[in-house]
Amino acid sequence: MRVVELLSTHDQILDGRSAQRFAGCRFPADPAYAPAVSAVARRVAEQMADLGVIGPLAVDFLVAGDEDGSWRPFALEVNLRMGGATHPYQTLTRLTGGSYDPQTATFTTPQGHARHYVAMDHLETPRLRVLGHAGLLARATHGDLRFDHQRGRGVVFHMLSSIEPLAAVGVTAIADSPSGADQLYGHVRTVLNHVPGRARAPQRPHIRAPLNARA
């Protein structure tokens, strides 16, 4: 017996020279078109299930607005794997215990509070090298860049191993409204761009050459 579950919808955030590189996402997707996207996504998933596909899949859409104010979704790509939006969504569900309703395109906690987030895979600033791995963790634990478990909102960092070598880190900013999530992410950028002190030079990977010896 097949079971198809719609987990989430996201708006992609794109950057790069032609604005075609995936940089992050906003959750949930705009409620104006999220239900239309969800309906097509469910049909795709059901057909995949009929073919024997088991596990997560992600569908990329382009949505176009009609003159009457409605939206038409066009499926572009099916990824038979976890997508770039999987890990921030799993972070949200595990931290809040909430769930997503595809009919209303809303995520609510068990207490009935709405939650939204902005998630970026690659927030880059040279000032990250001033904080370093330990400094960022300290700020995220006790400072203004932390997740408040009682209120169910705040900042979560990932990709911490890229701080020293690349001056970059992943960020998920969780708030109770779309504007609140944008503002929180903007606050993270501001803080990390104005860390006092001299930025350290990037670390170069240490390569050990093999020792060749003959008896």
Q: Brief description of this entry?
A:
This protein has helices at residues 34-50, 86-96, 128-142, 163-166, 178-193; strands at 11-15, 21-27, 58-65, 71-79, 99-101, 106-108, 116-124, 147-148, 153-158, 168-175.
What does the model show?
The protein is an alpha+beta fold and 215 residues long. Helix content is 29%, strand content 28%. The chain has helices at 34-50, 86-96, 128-142, 163-166, 178-193; strands spanning 11-15, 21-27, 58-65, 71-79, 99-101, 106-108, 116-124, 147-148, 153-158, 168-175. The strands form three sheets. Strands 1-2-7-10-9-8 form a six-stranded antiparallel beta sheet, with helices on both faces. A hairpin with a 4-residue loop joins strand 8 and strand 9 (153-158). The termini are far apart.
